[in-house]
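User: Sequence in, structure out. Go.
Assistant: Echoing your sequence, followed by the C-alpha cells.
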Amino acid sequence: MQQEHHRHGTQRTLVVLDGDLGGLVNLTRVVLARDSSQAAGQVPSVVYGLVSPAISDECERAASAQMDRLGVQPALSIDDSKRLALAELLKGESIDRSRELVMLHARWIAEDMDCDRVLWYEHAGSSAPDQQPVASVSHHHAVLLNTRLLISQLGLVQVPQEQAVRASVSAVRAISRRQPATIDCPLMDLDDSILASLALDLDCPVDLVWWAMSSSDKGTAARVRWSEAGLIMSYN
C-alpha cells in the first residue's frame, strides 16, 4: 500500500543546509512553493531541513536559525554521539570524499523521513570549507555530478565498515519505495552573482547566513566576496 503522501501526489523534500547562501536559497524556494500551494487550496508539499555534519558550529547555528525563520521542521537525525563521530570522520577526508559521505548521510535521513528528493546546496562559485575558491568550476561540476549519480541513482560509494549495515538497510528501503529518493543540485550552474540576485529576488532572509555577523577573518572575506557579487547588506 502506498504512503498517504504518494497517493495524493504530495512531494516531500529534504533540504541540506550549510549555513550559507546556497542552502538558504534552496530552502526559501521550496517554502515559497509550499505556501503558494497551500494558499491555492492544494495539498502543500512537505519540507524538512537537515544541517550538514561537515560544517562549523558557526555555520550550524546559522542553518538552524534559517529553519526557524522559515518555519521548517528539522529532519530526524542520528543521535549526537554518532553525529559527532561522523563530523570527526569528515575532518580527515578530502573535500570530494566528505561530499560523498554527507550526501550518503542525507540520503539515509531522506529515506527515514520518506522524502522524495534531497536538495544539495553547492553552486558554481561554492568554496571549500577553508573559503578558498574552487580551483576549477568544470572539475567541480564533474565531481558533483558523479557523486550525485553514484549516491542518488546507484548508491555506490564506499563507507566506513561500521556504516555498512546501515547502508544495506537503506538499499532495502529504497527498493520498497515507488521511487528512490533522488539528490538534486539545482544551483550547480549558478555563479556568485546569479545566486546573489536570486536570493534578493526571493527575498531570502540573508541576514541569517553564517558570515553576516561573523567577526572572523573568514567572515569578513565572505562579506567582501558577496558584496562584490551584488549582495549588499547592512551589518548592524
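User: And one key feature?
Assistant: The chain has a mean pLDDT of 75.
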